[in-house]
């Protein structure tokens, strides 16, 4: 892409991409979504216990959070949100992590007792999964990642900070009643964020990460509520495998992309 084309694209920004803007959007999203969830008065453990609760604490907040993000992007006119300017290489570890993630989803699908799942609640869970996949991927592997791909920052640094931000994003769950175990969940979320990043990287499209994220959250809830007896122990083994692979993915990204810079002009090497 010619220099004047890049300059022309940059001049269309109404809000210039920058890390502080990415952080501000995370804070704004948390205020909207968690604010609505807290205002419901429904205990955390009962958020999706019934279709009505799920609509109030999941579907409505996530839908409004999505509107916030879409509104920001329409106003800010950022590029590189939905797709990358080129294909970043996928290492063997990254590919294995993606395939393992898909295998986990298949195991959960088999392990769910679909006959025991309430049809109305299933619709709410699927809607929540679709919305959380869209909103959180737009926020993290879209807006925040784009905000970190600035000032000559390497892709390794941008991906690492995006994973850390995704983990810290789950801190408010401590306030709503998830309990001290949420500290562990913050670490696990950061690692899973690295794997979700590889889904975007796989085809250079955020849509793949959205689908993976949405299916993961929906299957996790259904597996916990209506899983067969063997699914619990299987999930622990899968979690351990995913944790190891996620850490290896971060190491692989750091080694592969410590000189890679992603800009609207394309993928460059320092």
UniProtKB/TrEMBL annotation:
<feature type="transmembrane region" description="Helical">
    <location>
        <begin position="58"/>
        <end position="76"/>
    </location>
</feature>
<dbReference type="Pfam" id="PF02517">
    <property type="entry name" value="Rce1-like"/>
</dbReference>
<keyword id="KW-0472">Membrane</keyword>
<dbReference type="GO" id="GO:0008237">
    <property type="term" value="F:metallopeptidase activity"/>
</dbReference>
<feature type="transmembrane region" description="Helical">
    <location>
        <begin position="96"/>
        <end position="115"/>
    </location>
</feature>
<keyword id="KW-1133">Transmembrane helix</keyword>
<feature type="transmembrane region" description="Helical">
    <location>
        <begin position="182"/>
        <end position="199"/>
    </location>
</feature>
<keyword id="KW-0645">Protease</keyword>
<keyword id="KW-0378">Hydrolase</keyword>
<dbReference type="GO" id="GO:0006508">
    <property type="term" value="P:proteolysis"/>
</dbReference>
<protein>
    <submittedName>
        <fullName>CPBP family intramembrane metalloprotease</fullName>
    </submittedName>
</protein>
<dbReference type="InterPro" id="IPR003675">
    <property type="entry name" value="Rce1/LyrA-like_dom"/>
</dbReference>
<feature type="transmembrane region" description="Helical">
    <location>
        <begin position="20"/>
        <end position="38"/>
    </location>
</feature>
<dbReference type="GO" id="GO:0080120">
    <property type="term" value="P:CAAX-box protein maturation"/>
</dbReference>
<keyword id="KW-0482">Metalloprotease</keyword>
<feature type="transmembrane region" description="Helical">
    <location>
        <begin position="121"/>
        <end position="144"/>
    </location>
</feature>
<feature type="domain" description="CAAX prenyl protease 2/Lysostaphin resistance protein A-like">
    <location>
        <begin position="121"/>
        <end position="218"/>
    </location>
</feature>
<feature type="transmembrane region" description="Helical">
    <location>
        <begin position="156"/>
        <end position="176"/>
    </location>
</feature>
<feature type="transmembrane region" description="Helical">
    <location>
        <begin position="234"/>
        <end position="254"/>
    </location>
</feature>
<feature type="transmembrane region" description="Helical">
    <location>
        <begin position="204"/>
        <end position="222"/>
    </location>
</feature>
<keyword id="KW-0812">Transmembrane</keyword>
<dbReference type="GO" id="GO:0004175">
    <property type="term" value="F:endopeptidase activity"/>
</dbReference>
